[in-house]
Design brief:
Length: 184
């Protein structure tokens, strides 16, 4: 960061601006801000003198209050932040850390609860599918066993069951008519 006479002038102007905004009675000029012990690392101390009496200095508490009130403007003028532009004896005006609108523990609790509910749903759906698959397999076995007992033949492309000759087969449609007309 190049600190030269122009930067010093800007700093003096910003401090004079802060003093004027802090107390509207005073008319602090740039010439009332004195920089002392300026180093290459941009380290110095400054004094603000009273404009009516060029000899007396403004109390330090008033200067501190004026800088606190206008610190963001001073930082903006130098494109710096409270971390890079430090005033000794003046606490920084860093904004407080941002707190989320919902507590962190509530977010973690919600995620864990969702995982538990998803696991339970997965287990229930998996159990229902397994039960359906088992019942379908048992139904297929029973139908295959029934087909083994009664063989199916095809006549003229139409499946027909083979008659069980031992038990006999009676056609109910013709049974009533046969009894009326013919006796066996």
């Amino acid at each position: 960061y190049a600190w030269d006479a122009n930067e010093e002038y800007l700093f003096k102007a910003m401090v004079a601006f802060a003093m004027r905004r802090y107390s509207s009675k005073r008319t602090t000029q740039i010439s009332n801000v004195l920089l002392c012990n300026v180093t290459d690392r941009v380290s110095f101390w400054f004094v603000v003198t009273d404009s009516s009496k060029n000899v007396t200095t403004v109390p330090g508490s008033e200067v501190e209050a004026a800088i606190r009130m206008n610190r963001n403007r001073i930082n903006s003028a130098f494109l710096l932040s409270d971390k890079t532009l430090q005033f000794l004896k003046i606490t920084s005006t860093l904004s407080p850390p941002v707190e989320p609108s919902t507590p962190v523990w509530l977010i973690v609790f919600g995620v864990v609860l969702c995982l538990i509910v998803a696991g339970i749903v997965f287990l229930v759906v998996g159990g229902i599918r397994q039960h359906k698959k088992k019942s379908k397999e048992s139904t297929e076995r029973e139908s295959l066993e029934e087909k083994d007992e009664v063989t199916v033949t095809a006549e003229n492309g139409i499946p027909c069951e083979v008659l069980d000759l031992k038990a006999g087969h009676v056609n109910g449609v013709f049974a009533a008519d046969d009894e009326r007309f013919t006796s066996l």
